[in-house]
Specification:
With about 475 residues, this protein is α/β, with parallel strands linked by helices. The chain contains 15 helices and 19 strands. Helices cover about 35% and strands about 20% of the residues.
Length: about 475
């Protein structure tokens, strides 16, 4: 028989051992020093890839990149022959909510478990939420991710939408006056949000007060607008406009300042637009001169455009069964209706986004995973980048838009967004060459965030059937 004290110590030891968490299989690489050898390096700055490179990661940062680097003793080494390394994606129109299946007024549910994992699985290491429905859930998820208790990208949080009367979405609260706008900006700034999103029904006077108050607190303002035109918003000092030119009310025939937002009229104006008209060229020049960034969100608009792709099996498997069924039903209806206006407006927007980029505008990318089920976090990020290439950008340019340009907008380009020594070890290992075939992004294997490598496939598998539920 063991002495009582020895028995107690043995029991305590067993308790301590059993209390230690088991290694999480989602974490593929965790080591003080990681060396990636024989890699194709795509730096995110638009430069041609460098072949047969060695990348050394140490202390959560990129220590060095080169062809003839000495491998440190004791390092964890991975041979990436035939594979590419590129920066983690910095995507700037993301959400932690998704449309529900409710039959009543438009309603969304928070996807606080599935969406952060999907983003990280696709290689998104930094994401701006660009409009919040459950702001305190967003704050909590940011804290959990930063503490390491949840998986997800580095989150840059946008406050709840600043919209005017007539929103039609019960979860949004209309901002009643310029004074109310100022009060709300200060409240959410105090809570830790770093940007504001103005929405389709917000009038110009309240938008002006929002922008002034936000800038006074060091917050950026972006907008999915309609009641205020792009030209008017640029004059008010807005930093960023969402959805390319798909939300532009400037060229609606007969439009007067303050007219209600009307998406159908916007699409019709795009459909009828002569792309060489002085009005659109002048608008692009104005946006660039006023340093207004444009966010491309082609993946969400594709889902409303007939003749486009249906969601892949992997995407459908990620949806909860009722949402999967409703998505396929709606997709079929859109294709049966076969709206020429939708097709033409989508094609024209792609053309104008490429023109804005070629003219020197700061184009960034986002997913906007909303709609009716066809545009998901993660998978939608890949599709958004593929569509930039379809719009006329080269694969290297599209990667730059989705990495370095996003970091520039968020003012984190000194820390992340490109593969350079001294920056955070935020990068993606891809089994292919997305500099030649952009869809090779879908072959992501490991996503590093601050030097920790996550298994992309295991992250995707962990949320199968959950989108629409949690």
């Amino acid at each position: 028989m063991k002495p009582p004290r020895l028995a107690f110590l043995l029991a305590l030891s067993v308790t301590r051992i059993s209390a230690q968490p088991a290694p999480d299989p989602i974490i593929a690489v965790r080591a003080p020093v990681v060396v990636l050898t024989h890699a194709r390096v795509i730096d995110g700055l638009g430069h041609a890839p460098l072949e047969n490179q060695t990348v050394i990661l140490s202390g959560g940062k990129i220590e060095s990149i080169g062809a003839d680097l000495k491998i440190p003793d004791g390092a964890t080494v991975r041979d990436l022959t035939g594979k590419s390394v590129l920066p983690g994606l910095v995507m700037v129109h993301e959400h932690l909510f998704y449309s529900s299946l409710a039959g009543g007024p438009f309603h969304v549910n928070e996807m606080e478990f599935s969406f952060p994992r999907l983003y990280l699985a696709a290689g998104v290491t930094s994401a701006r939420t660009t409009g919040s429905m459950e702001p305190y859930t967003d704050l909590e998820m940011k804290a959990r991710i930063e503490s390491g208790t949840s998986f997800g990208p580095k989150l840059h949080l946008t406050a709840p939408y600043f919209d005017g009367a007539g929103t039609g979405i019960p979860q949004l609260h209309a901002v009643a006056s310029p004074a109310a706008a100022t009060r709300m900006v200060n409240y959410w700034a105090d809570e830790g949000f770093t940007s504001i999103k103005v929405y389709v029904n917000l009038p110009a006077d309240i938008m002006a007060a929002t922008i002034t108050a936000a800038h006074a607190r060091g917050l950026q303002v972006t907008g999915h607008i309609g009641k205020v035109s792009y030209r008017e918003a640029a004059g008010l000092g807005i930093d960023n406009l969402e959805h390319g030119f798909m939300a532009m009310s400037d060229l609606i025939p007969g439009r007067k300042p303050g007219d209600p937002s009307n998406a159908l009229n916007t699409y019709r104006s795009l459909e009828a637009l002569d792309p060489d008209t002085p009005e659109i060229n002048g608008l692009i020049a104005l946006l660039i001169s006023q340093h207004v960034t444009l966010t491309s969100t082609l993946a969400i608009f594709e889902t409303f455009t007939p003749g486009r792709r249906v969601a892949s099996k992997a995407e459908l498997d990620t949806l909860a069964p009722p949402l999967r069924e409703s998505y396929l039903t709606r997709w079929a209806a859109i294709n049966l209706q076969n709206s020429k206006t939708s097709r033409d407006a989508f094609a024209r927007d792609m053309q104008l986004e490429a023109r804005f980029f070629r003219a020197g505008g700061l184009l960034v990318a986002g997913t906007d995973p909303t709609g009716y089920g066809g545009c998901l976090a993660g998978y939608g990020n890949w599709r958004a980048i593929e569509l930039l290439v379809e719009a006329g950008l080269t694969p290297l340019e599209a990667i730059e838009v989705a990495t370095h340009n996003g970091a520039k907008l968020l003012k984190i380009d000194a820390q992340t967004g490109s593969l350079e020594a001294g920056k955070a070890a935020d990068l993606i290992i891809v089994n292919g060459d997305p500099s030649r075939n952009i869809s090779d992004l879908r072959k992501a294997e490991i996503v590093f965030k601050d030097g920790v490598g996550y298994d992309s496939q295991k992250l995707f598998e962990s949320v199968k059937g959950l989108v629409g539920i949690q």
